[in-house]
Prior knowledge:
This protein is mainly alpha-helical. The chain has 25 helices and 7 strands.
Amino acid sequence: xxxxxxxxxxxxxxxxxxxxxxxxxxxHTGILQDQLRRAQRRPWVPSFSLAVRILLxxxxxxxxxxxxxxxxxxxxxxxxLHFLEQGxxxxxxxxxxxxxxxxxxxxxxxxxxxHIGNIVLSGDKxxxxxxxxxxLATISVLVEATLFRTIVERINERVGRYYFFFxxxxxxxxxxSVAFLPSTFAMYTSALAFSYAFTPTSTKNSRRxxxxxxxxxxxxxxxxxxxxxxxxPFVFEELFVYGADIVTPEDRLPWFKNxxxxxxxxxxxxxxxxIPVIGIDxxxxxxxxxVPWNIIHYNIFGGSERGPNLYGTAPWDFYINNLIVxxxxxxxxxxxxxxxxxxxxxxxxxxxxxxxxxxNQSSPFTIxxxxxxxxxxxxxxxxxxxxxxxxFMFPAYPLLCxxxxxxxxxxxxxxxxxxxxxxxxxYRASQSLIFxxxxxxxxxASSVISLSRILALFQYYHAPxxxxxxxxxTEVPRLLNxxxxxxxYPEGTSEEDRPRIDLTPIKDFDLALCFGKxxxxxxxxxxxxxxxxxxxxxxxxxxxxxxxxxxxxxxxxEGGETRVVKRLSDKLWMKPQxxxxxxxxxxxxKEDMSHYVPVSQCDxxxxxxxxxxxxxxxxxPRYATMTDTWERVSCHPFLDARHSFLLTRMFWLPGSKWQSxxxxxxxxxxxxxERVEMKEKEVRRRARD
Length: 689
């Protein structure tokens, strides 16, 4: 029986012109060519938009939870920024106008984010701190995604996919991507420069030369001048490699002159970046200063009494060991990339194209070798330097992941060749899952190990941040509460209806938070409420510690040219105190006792104690055990690396069996019972009056 229901279907008008569908993106356009499944569906790789969203999750998480692993980041960059914004902070000898080794132009690039943080969450400097970190994370995401898509389009889709996941889960990038350091800035600019440089050079493509040169120069001039070494293979390619050009013998001399002229022109254009940098730094220091040259002069031509070696040297394998910790086995793959390319030349030559270049063309092997070369150049230069630090490797982190991705792809190609040779069946090879499972296992294993390392960094070394949070979120409100400086709300007022606690009255206590042997783990003034002084007490360390920025200006400068710059500085620069030349800072790493206060003047003290393996000296007593004077406010576990098993201290895994191989100390916020109690009584009395 019919339901007597009729369906009407309305079609769109057919007289409108139909837009033709966009042609699918061309495949196999990169240097490396897939040999199997060439006509089948392309391998999955994230789009630029999706890559940005995925990377943003990882990098913002790093901004919120990663540690500060280098005190240079705090004292040379976070503290000057805090001084510009809040009016006080620590000054290192590098920031003295006498030496001028740190660029205020670079610091000024980060001036707006903390103000945005203060608007979003007014009255809490922690918001400003994390706003800067999220700003850095966002820049890193955009740069990483740009280079990733360049690798997909110019090298190979699979190589791009491996690179993406190596970068996404890397413990090294977890730290480097959000570090407030010139080497991180150089990493941004260099990675963006390589997104242009990975396009084959051509006489017709001047944009590649200009963009890459400007970006390399920006990283060197604004950030770190030694990062320019990463551009050596790029310069070589620009001058001597045909790239996409076909050059006959009679055209070689005009071709070379054209290349030289183009590169020199790009270099001259890039040199214009010096103008604003020199201008800002000269205003900040009150005299004409070229900070990139100052850095080069001190590190290379400083003489036997000066130079970076004063701050420690390391053996030749320092960077290899450090890279293994941060990237597990990827450094080995990265260093094997050039040998792997040589092997592919003999056993899998079609992997780099199906045609043989003539004498008038560049070989794709040469071009890819130049893409892999910067990592070797960088690692070689740094290894030869006696003074080594983890942050020096930051600019090459994306290149390490790229080299490792290329190596994985080439090894996959060898297995395909071996499979076809044994089975004599390209069809069976195209249907096999051996190759995808091989590369998947490499990527997944590296990612899991990296995640374990990231968890170890948080679980084992996050105590300085935890102690700072406990001080601001627990101890300071307690002081305000017991002295009656917190407002009293009617009973039944919900937490949502109560405004954020105003910590401003804490200035009435005139508190001093002190650091002794833990001075190098001070997380920065952004994580200490305004109105609380941070001071140093003497420890066994006998080198140069920072001082507080001076609040008064020095006398008039001598010399006509310098006097003109000083006048401009007084009129245009926001903090003329930066032009003051302190007498208690030196570049010889010699201690100045005026930077210390007696421990008896400290209201709170940060100290690290290892109760299972205690040690103490007259300058570094076990404050945490001196219960007559010091009371534990908040203590957090901190790994005792010297007495923990190598593997368990490097990586974190759940379970008591794994953790039983580690030993921990107490990273404590201590309260001077007598001093704080006296100040509580005094403030309470003033509040009643």
